[in-house]
Specification:
This protein is mainly alpha-helical and 555 residues long. It contains 19 helices and 14 strands. The strands form seven sheets. A two-stranded antiparallel sheet has the order 1-5. Strands 2-6 form a two-stranded antiparallel sheet. Helix 5 crosses helix 10 and helix 11 packs across helix 12. The longest helix is centred in the last third of the chain and has 40 residues. The two termini are 39 Å apart.
Length: 555
């Protein structure tokens, strides 16, 4: 690695340097110049964030095109466009203009599909990017705030997708709004009032499309742009994380400068993403609104599926039973101003899992810091196997989410596989409750096993596939020692240890500290320690090195 590809500095020095440039009269130009010298590490997993960013740019470009032709009005009209099966049918102006974009505007259908596929990829890119950040520990100090910004971006992406998905005012999107109306009305005391003001009267009202349009093209994109700017600013200030390897420390970044190397690569990658989305949009149909017809509150179409990033909320509603034996989740409660009905079988699944997942997501950096008492700055990423408790929690969360996501297609699962819808629901409920715990246990044991395997490989070398016969007639497999780079990759990590309850400055152990110690024991009691230099030297000197649990597991 040449010196031109490596730079070393501390984060505090970097903050001061950027602040000095901003305060100068030529601060903007100097900051751009400074950013051009910024070093970024090179790894394929870092591209998921770029995919999300470029998808958002494509959304802005395609959305601008669609804005010129879409009319967000719920006024009634009769369709007289090119699509013959719907000609003469009464519908809203919004739905009529969506049909005109699809059939009468040159390139309109293509741009609609580019916009929709880019929206799906935008949320997918953010989701995978945040999973990568979580499993590698990139959210730790000093990047906790940036993790929160990422979580806000994920919520805004889902909000932008839902508001745009509802704009055509077709039967499918109208049914989605009907579900939202039901969830809002299930909010105790104020739900009916919120629904009335949101829809401009009794559902569906005459104002909701126009209001969603303002949210979709103005308010939500503006906040997303603000969050993206904040996110990139903090990446510059804190410097980019990097994977462990020779020459990489907590105080440097090994990679390439933004200009001209990374700028050229990023520009090329943008066109790759643009080309992929354009190819998908040209070849694969999505959201054929002409098949659904205009929205009518009376019918509900079967086999309807929301976009994947909203499906988990719909799935939670499908999993929730209306009654448990003789117990009903719909309760009437006497309040000072009268009786109010609490519809918990709608309110709990619609808000409970979302609040739980998002709350855990936002709070996790501080939860992990509290459990481990690790207040250091981290710029080197973890291999997921080297953080078993975090990886296991992430796997449990993925199973929890995916079960709800699959439940949104419970009717299609039943019809495609010719099984009972009730059986599908019962199985999914079982997985919803037990699946996260099973995933946690299996993932944690797999991580510990992989760490033991790494330990054995470092001490004894990798299996070469060569069988050697000894003079006594015995057979054994030859092992080859690892090179320095691979050995460094397997030993250069630090696993947090279980910390018993610690007394405070007054010498007392508080209840909060006792709770922390219990969680620390649960997560960190079983750990595989990295190979020490003494153990490696002993192995190379052909001394006996115990590789069993009593050596590899530290308690």
């Amino acid at each position: 690695m040449t010196m031109s590809q490596t730079t070393e500095y501390t984060p505090t020095t970097e903050v001061g340097r950027i602040a000095n440039f901003v305060n100068q009269r030529t601060g903007a130009a100097a900051a751009v110049k400074e950013f051009g010298r910024k070093i970024f590490p090179d790894h394929w997993s870092f591209m998921f964030g770029e995919v999300a960013l470029y998808s958002f740019i494509i959304l802005l470009l395609s959305g601008t095109f669609l804005t010129f032709f879409f009319d967000p009005s719920m006024a009634e009209t009769h369709y007289d466009g090119s699509y013959v099966p719907l000609r003469g049918i009464e519908m809203s102006v919004a739905y009529s203009s969506s049909l005109d974009i699809s059939f009468d505007v040159r390139g309109g259908l293509f741009m609609r599909q580019v916009h929709h596929w880019a929206a799906l990829l935008f949320v997918a890119g953010m989701s995978v990017h945040m999973l990568r950040v979580f499993f590698t520990g990139a959210f730790r100090r000093p990047r906790e705030l940036n993790w929160v910004v990422g979580g806000v971006l994920l919520i805004l992406g889902m909000a932008a997708g839902f508001t745009g998905y509802s704009l055509p005012d077709d039967l499918l999107s109208g049914n989605g709004l009907r579900i939202i109306d039901g969830v809002i009305k299930a909010i105790p005391v104020v739900g009916t009032y919120i629904s009335f003001f949101l829809f401009g009267g009794e559902f569906p009202g005459t104002a909701i499309i126009g209001r969603l349009y303002v949210l979709h093209i103005l308010l939500v994109p503006a906040i997303i742009l603000l969050m993206v700017v904040l996110h990139l600013m903090m990446v510059v200030i804190h410097k980019h994380t990097q994977y462990p390897g020779p020459g990489r420390t907590e105080d440097n970044v090994v990679g390439f400068p933004v200009g001209p190397v990374y700028a050229a690569k990023a520009g090329g990658f943008f066109f790759v993403v643009f080309g992929a989305i354009a190819a998908i949009a040209a070849l694969f149909q999505i959201n054929p609104i002409w098949n659904y017809g205009p929205y009518d509150p009376s019918p509900v179409s079967a086999g309807t599926q929301p976009d994947w990033y909203i499906g988990w909320v719909d799935g939670a509603l499908r999993l929730m039973p209306g009654v448990l034996g003789d117990f009903s989740f719909e309760r009437t409660v006497a309040l000072p101003w009268g009786h109010n009905t609490f519809v918990f079988n709608v309110l709990l699944p619609a808000l409970g899992p979302a609040l739980f997942l998002l709350g855990l997501l936002f709070a996790w950096p501080w939860i992990e810091r509290w459990i481990t008492k690790d207040d250091r700055e981290h710029h080197i990423l973890d291999r997921p196997r080297n953080a078993p408790f975090r990886t296991a929690v992430g796997a449990a969360g993925v199973v929890f989410y995916c079960t709800m996501w699959a439940a949104a297609s419970s009717d299609l699962i039943a019809t495609h596989f010719h099984v009972s819808l009730n059986d599908v629901t019962y199985w999914l409920r079982t997985i919803f409750i037990l699946g996260p715990f099973i995933a946690f246990w299996i993932t944690r044991r797999l991580c510990l096993s992989l760490q033991r395997k790494d330990r054995e490989t470092v001490l004894h070398g990798r299996e070469a596939g060569v069988i050697v016969m000894s003079p006594e007639g015995g057979y054994s497999e030859k092992h080859e020692q690892l090179n320095e780079y691979k050995r460094w990759r397997l030993v250069s990590f630090d696993t947090p240890q279980h910390l018993p309850a610690q007394p405070d400055e007054n010498g007392k152990i508080t209840k909060k500290e006792k709770r922390r110690a219990k969680w620390s024991k649960f997560f960190l009691e079983d750990r595989v320690a990295p190979v020490t230099p003494a153990e490696l030297a002993a192995a190379h000197d052909h001394h006996e090195v115990e590789g069993g649990d009593h050596k590899s597991l530290a308690h």
